[in-house]
Write a structure and sequence with these properties.
Layout lengths: L2 H10 L4 H18 L11 E5 L5 H6 L4 E6 L2 H10 L4 E3 L12 E7 L8 H11 E12 L7 H5 L8 H10 L3 E8 L4 H13 L16 H20 L7 E7 L3
Parallel strand pairs: 1-2, 1-4, 2-3, 4-5
Antiparallel strand pairs: 5-7, 6-7
């Protein structure tokens, strides 16, 4: 992504409903697996945040264990550093410069779609996780939702559920959860993306679709996603804008 897009993300990640909902989803999964985080992070639990972007998720993850945050973009790492994220590493997710069997948890939020070879990246995730290690990953769903947003975000693909399941299984993981999320908002997002695809846009300077709402609406959307996240903990949702997978490396 370009500098302007990273700047937008940096200023919105802590408050914008889409980002906050995604971060809370990951934390709810960690809470269900490990209990509530203690005031002092568990020094024995090691966490890798791959594709950390501007670092808002990484800041949250520091409560859960010893964290390493990685991104290929020097710009992203600069923004993460500005946010105070520790232990930053410039890394290609398809060839991680990290020891095998080092991490207990690996977070990959909306980053596999940015890679030309996501299968190799999943093999690398498997390699650096300890036996019994946990992968939590999200990706954008449905190729029919492809729009200017995906171009601006430099995506290679959007995923169908069977495709993601096949890729994660092929890397050696045991999938424990595979669910759509952002389900309640799917009709609105789908309509917006289809209308956007029909409008002319500047192919030289595409923009991500991040509409800014008044504070009460933003607050309401965060609450809506909080309820949806609770449901997604118990059941696999059948459709939605995003796909979530939780998978384990066999012990």
């Amino acid at each position: 992504m370009n500098t302007a897009e990273y700047e937008r993300m940096y200023h919105l990640e802590d408050s914008y409903w889409w980002y906050v909902g995604r971060h809370c989803l990951v934390e709810s999964i960690l809470r269900s697996r490990f209990g509530a985080p203690s005031p002092l992070a568990d020094p024995e639990r090691t966490i890798l945040d791959v594709g950390c972007g501007t670092g808002a998720m990484s800041v949250r993850l520091t409560k859960w264990g010893r964290l390493v945050s990685a991104d290929y973009s020097p710009l992203a790492l600069q923004f993460s550093q500005r946010r105070g994220v520790p232990n930053l590493v410039r890394a290609d997710a398809m060839k991680l410069p990290l020891a095998s069997a080092r991490f207990d948890v690996l977070i990959a939020m909306d980053m596999l779609e940015h890679l030309p070879d996501d299968i190799t990246a999943l093999a690398e995730f498997y390699r650096v996780l300890k036996p019994g290690g946990l992968l939590i990953a999200t990706v954008p769903a449905y190729p029919h939702l492809w729009s200017e947003h995906d171009v601006a975000a430099m995506h290679f693909r959007r995923y169908l559920r069977p495709e993601l399941l096949h890729r994660v299984n092929s890397a050696g993981f045991r999938v424990e959860k595979l669910s759509h999320t952002m389900t309640t908002l799917y009709p609105i997002v789908a309509l917006q993306r289809r209308l956007s695809a029909r409008r002319p846009h500047d192919s030289q300077n595409p923009r991500t679709s991040i509409p800014i709402f008044p504070a009460p609406i933003n607050f309401g959307l965060k609450k809506l996603l909080s309820v949806e996240n609770s449901v997604a903990q118990r059941v696999n949702l059948p459709f939605g804008v995003t796909l979530l997978t939780v998978a384990k490396k066999p012990s």
